[in-house]
Amino acid sequence: MIRTNTNYLQLSHRYLFAEIAQQVNAYKAEHPEANIIRLGIGDVTCPLPDAAIKAMHHAVDECADGKTFRGYGPEHGYDFLIDAIMAHDFTPRGIQLDREEVFISDGAKSDTGNIGDILSTDNIVGITDPVYPVYVDTNIMAGRTIKYIPCHADNGFTGDIPTEHLDIIYLCYPNNPTGAVITKEKLAEWVNYALREKALILYDSAYEAFISSDDIPHSIYEIEGAKECAIEFRSFSKTAGFTGVRCGYTIIPKELKGADGTSLNALWNRRQCSKFNGASYISQRGAEAIFTPEGQQQVRATIQHYMKNAQLIRESLAFFGLTVYGGEHSPYIWVSTPDGEDSWHFFHRLLHDANVVVTPGEGFGTHGEGYVRITAFGTWENSLEAMERIKKIL
Ligand SMILES: *Cc1c(COP(=O)(O)O)cnc(C)c1O
What we know:
The chain folds into two domains: about 5-50 and about 295-394, Aspartate Aminotransferase, domain 1; about 50-290, 3-Layer(aba) Sandwich (Aspartate Aminotransferase, domain 2). It has helices at about 15-30, 50-65, 80-90, 110-115, 135-140, 185-195, 235-240, 265-275, 280-290, 295-320, 345-355, 380-394, and strands at about 35-40, 100-105, 125-130, 145-150, 170, 200-205, 230-235, 250, 325, 330-335, 355, 360, 370-375. By secondary structure, it is of the alpha/beta class. The chain binds pyridoxal-5'-phosphate. Pyridoxal-5'-phosphate binds near residues 42, 176, 235, 243 and 248.
């Protein structure tokens, strides 16, 4: 008899972006002539940085020669990339890490989704709402109890510190979908809560490269005590256009211990060695090149391009009278629907009357109702054209 994981039956019946794609395709089938502008899905559009392309070409050539060919790599990643990450992303911020604390991965989606492998299903999980759906779905699949932490304009979309006990808390700043950032003071409150409750923070900083102010933390380890209570997930996807290449990394400090004293670092190392064979050598060479001076300059230029779109979208919509959040240290603009219109209703109106695709806030959680998410990952021309069209229907 095949017994399936019945927790899957508790998942919402469809994946949000599949639902949106289906609605857009249905509209396109009826209106084949429509010129649809997609500011919905959170995927990058600019080509890879030249430095990464050159490095990956070179890596392919190395694999074409028996003397430099690479097969299976270390499960935790190559030292050349780990060293570059520590030297550029952590040491300059006063964060000292060991090589064994950095785990190279094929991206933050898999790691934020798989981290539950080393955590008991008895843990009570706190998840901010609205949220990146991966945290919710993977905890439902595991059968864990989820408590939602409402994020709204009044708490700056950073959630109120819970009065109840939680074992695991997911935080993501700069945030997807709200585009919100967290101050060092507020993040310190979360860290102190976790230390007090002996809880674990799973900190997703996939968008840290979009931060343009020194006051905003890039890493949770900028906060004192975080090494005893936090795991951090990072990705080259949004930073460097690696959504198709695949590379990211996860930091698990050695100080981090489970209730029985077990090292989470040791458990994750064991898990990776058994279930993961590493990101490809080619991706890791591409990622390493992001940290060269040329790579850094190219990445900055692409992010500036997206942030110019973000500024245009943010300022245009505010000028049209909508209330907007985010878009300053994040490629996402979180927009209040006009007169409290239902978010799916506004989504349909934008699709049908303006041929612009956005993401209905409700798809990210109950507290996303009343908002839509617009991404700055389009072209300048499309962002401009989308604003013209939205202006007409408001
Ligand atoms: C895009 C995104 C990621 C990155 O996922 P990858 O698997 O590295 O491409 C992680 N977290 C959030 C919140 C994201 O939006």
